[in-house]
Amino acid sequence: MLRGWCFCENHGLEYCHSCAMDFRIGNNYRLQDNMTEEQLESLADQGIDLPDDDRRPLCVDGVYKLLPCGTAACVAHSAVGCERCFNFERRVMDD
Ligand SMILES: [Zn+2]
Ligand SMILES: [Zn+2]
Question: Separation of 94 CA from ligand 2 center, angstroms?
């Protein structure tokens, strides 16, 4: 889990053939669940669609590393829960 987003453990994929896992639905659900009414309205005003369950899956392979304590940190800044590297909300919305 990276900032609450789920990926397969072996390959860092949101949608993984090898592991037969698809976390997109759960991740999308969580994204919408965390948004306020105003945020949802402003997206609608801007004509931005909410990500659907068939969107391009995210991949975090090589983006994060596990610290000795087992917590994930980004490779670029060694930051746990890095806002820049783990800004998945923005990435799925921009897609
Ligand atoms: Zn996998
Ligand atoms: Zn980072």
Answer: 19
Which ligand does the CA of 17 lie closest to?
1
**Closest of 17, 15, 26, 12 to residue 61, by C-alpha:** 12
d(Cα 85, Cα 81) in Å, to the nearest integer? 8
* Cα-to-centroid distance, 32 and ligand 1 (Å): 25
Side chain identity, residue 27: N
CA 45–ligand 2 middle distance (angstroms): 31
Residue-range definition of the domain harbouring residue 39: 15-94
What is the count of structural domains for the chain?
1
Residue at 2 is within a domain: no
Q: What is the dihedral sign for C-alpha 53, 55, 56, 61?
A: negative
Residue 83 lies in a domain: yes
Q: Could you read off the pLDDT of 42-58 as tens digits, one per residue?
A: 999 999 888 999 999 99
pTM comes to 0.86
